[in-house]
Structures
1.
Amino acid sequence: MPRIRRESGDERRRSKSVWFAAFIVLTILAVGTAKVQLWPDRRIVSQSQKQYWANVAVSASRGRIEDRRGVPLAISVPSTSFFIDPKYWDPASADVLKGTFGAATARKFSRELPGRFYWVARNIPKERADKLAQMKVPGLYTLSEKRRMYPHESLAFHLLGFCDIDEYGQAGVELSWNHILYSPPRTRFLTRDSKGNAMDTMSGKSGVVKDTAGSIKLTVDSRVQQIMEWRLSEGAKAVDAGWASGVCVDPYTGEIIALASYPTLNPNDRKNLVNTNAVRNNAVGRVFEPCSIFKPITMSIALETGAAGRNTTYTCHGTMKLFDRTMSDVNRRAHGKQDLTHVLMNSCNIGMSLMSMGVPKYQAYGMLKQFGFGDKTEVEIAGEESGLIKQPEEWLGTVPANIFIGQGIAVTPLQIVMAISSIANGGMLLKPYVIDEVRDSLGNVIHKGTRRVRYQVVSKQTSDFIREAMRRVVAEGGGKLAKSEKVSIAGKTGTAQIAASGQYAKGQYVASFVGFWPAEKPRYVMLISIGEPKGARYYGGQIAAPVFKSIVEDIVQISPEKM
């Protein structure tokens, strides 16, 4: 048998030394690796930066907005953004920027700059960017982004709103529904290839990041919207008005068919957005005293509370002393003895003032609140105002009479349209809505607009009576300039003074016409308001009624079978 060799003491000591030496070497290597990771050598960093130097957040696709027929109103399109890396940029090349971005941008990059990354311009349309990009100027690079684009330019601007440079909603539907339409920006890692050319890599698994934005279909008909904007602008320019507004709704559903403001602008050119007057959405964001277009509503209240009956008559002498004030009609015209229909046809302030005296103020206040005044309609559009109605404790002296003729109360155009819609549809106040359908990024419907009744504000009998009276306003009364041979129209004129600092501003008015058609079975309710017209013509019957008529007749032409 072979003998087992036993290690001597010296051999055991040598073996331990070898293992200890190996341990030391491994420890040194581990420490060295950690040091490189935690405290990298500047030379290594410098070499690395030749390959990678920045990560940048760039905009992603934003969700599509379309009208009720599927016509695109807001989309995302490819765009090009330019940036400079000063390490490779020659300031002497700055003149190449002048043609695309202007002299100011060229001057900015005509000097030495610290750092590694500077935006030159973002979201440049491809057709503008291509020529400069193809020049391949050293140090000037491009990134692909998405840009919000409105194919029909200013169409429905005040309804749609706009986005900032990062595609985040700033107004209108774009802001109210930003949580659906917005996709978070994507991170781009800027690197250099083996030839020294700039390239970018998208973050995310395999460089692929799916859009998270949903899409929205509106209740708006872009054809009606276009007609309204054209006629509204035409009418406002004819009298050199400061502003104008138009709202058209379906009285049986609460759907907004068109909503327009004047002046307007094209949001595709961001420089336009500094015009605050043009940015303002007058239909939901401007309040004014409605004056006589309010009379169908207050007359409805008088009928519902029993303060007046269909056969009630009032005698108008042109003026009336009431408490410490004198109420008067236009030009102090005496209308004589008249029933409720003629009070409305003649837009008689005296008749309405006498009517107000029989209505308990708390009842009147409560019904005005039910009609939606003093509260937001909660339509899905950012920037809505609530208007103003005095508390019943403040209804002292001539206040009730003033409110019954549409003074001393502040309303928005949308509030008026919805209140008149309740008269047109048989007495139901509906909640307005502009969103027909919302889909998620996978195309699943996650929200569907629907008809919502807020209150039964008046009876069908009262509704029928007021509707007929409004028909006669157009057929025989002060609204004759809205009369059409193509379709029967019912409505009411209104001319309001503009209040400022507790007093009415001299020579400043809001001319309005509110109505519906066909008068017998209303399909649409619409309000046209023209603010601060200049010149001798400023009455609602003079300048707003003809605009209303022209819009109606244009709409009838595109859908005559439903009229």
2.
Amino acid sequence: MSQHTKSIMIQGTMSNAGKSILAAGLCRIFHQDGYRTAPFKSQNMALNSYITPEGLEMGRAQAVQAEAAGIVPSADMNPILLKPTTDVGSQVIVHGVSRGNMKARDYFACKKSLVPDIMASYRRLEEQYDVIVIEGAGSPAEINLKSDDIVNMGMADMADAPVLLVGDIDRGGVFAQLYGTVALLTEEERKRIKGLIINKFRGDRSILEPGISMLEDLCGIPVVGVVPYMDVDIEDEDSLSSRLETGKGKAPAAVDLAVIRFPRISNFTDFNVFSGIPGVSLRYVTRACDLGTPDMVILPGTKNTIHDLLWMRQNGLEAAILKLADRRVPVWGICGGYQMMGEVLVDEKGVESDLPSRTSGMGLLPLKTEFEEEKIRTQVEGAFGQLDGCLGGLSGKSIEGYEIHMGRTYIDREEGAADTARIVSWRREPEICRPMDYVMETGKDRLSSRQARMDGWNRGNIYGTYVHGIFDSPGIAGAVAEALAAAKGLCLEQAADMDYRTYRQQQYDKLAEELRENLDMAAVYRIMDISQKGKMGISRKGKGEEKPDDGYTVGTGTAGRY
């Protein structure tokens, strides 16, 4: 370990206990207090991913934590990313690059060999930052997963990091969670836990005091915080998020957006910006009977396009969406959702499954997608082309985001992909098929951009693109909401005022304020052996100085962990 760099690790009693958001909050606090801070998670399992300026893939949770820390994300912050492809297998990504799909048993057999990769990333961060906030995964007490652990106590040992253990009181039994977890650990592992945190508390804290005293006596570990159920809007790590509830019973809004919740939905945070616009309802739908009559249907990304398309076809959602499209309800597809909108999907190399396949698409666009083994990973910036339909007002607006996909999509017609004339009849009425947007791949210094290229297609009220995070671009989400409202004769006065980047920075500050009020930060600083009043006496030229906290933006499954 570096002589100066300090670390703190957040582990949980279970998945979704609040590790990611607490880590983000601590990143913000240390950043506010003058420490150059970086997040780290050795192994992340999620379908919510992000592409760095270098074109490397990492877990989105660590990208969000980096944003909270005021720095540009790096794949070193998440050296191993597992993206589930089946119930027993995942795509294994190391240092931002895919090493192929592996079954769980095969990954377990080789994961110890990845320790040098993990520690190489960690050491590089030590050379750049004063503080590293490490996040664990699941629970350190999962006995079946403790052998050759590289993400919980195993990682704490490799980094020599003190641990804060978090329990979720909202799920009930928090005292049993915390005590049971501690009791199942070895003596050496228990010594690493320096503090307990009770998370997501609602009510009068004084009622907890007898339980807290007993818990401290039983564990021999102090409770360093009781964190309330916080009203902060921070992007969730994966599909365990409560955001993905179907939305039944929610109050009606001027604009109703329905996102199809695929079994292997990825990058669902692409749409979070709409949740902050007054008058807009964002709901996730898994059944045809819950789809209703939304103002726009969104087909999000997915880690298994063909299987999720077939799932939608079997449960009636595809037919329901096609009926809405016939009525000129806008349908917007991103990445895998965009691929589904075409006429055919071809997987001759078995990229998406073990068997080659050729599958009919939804037929909303005259497109063919061919899956390829090489993954496209790049940040992009550009602008919408000349769009038709009710969202024609987006024409020419600037966009930025990133692409993560394995496949090439093009117009499968004799006219060729460059022809934007009337090419086919769609349903009953011929419509013009136009390029959706034009983008350039961007380098870290934004000086290595390649020639502009076309991305996506638009025909009438059908919109498809490969670009994730497209709604986060300034003015885009507000313009979409306003156009959908105007189509109904309504007006959303505040939609255009939504500045999502500023909003996210405000939420990080709000999160930090909540944690300062409810965590014993003096104790946390003592545990880390650093001063609470300011930076350590370290001066490393250029160390961690990448961008100010107000200048960086994160553009925008079946989740779990091995």
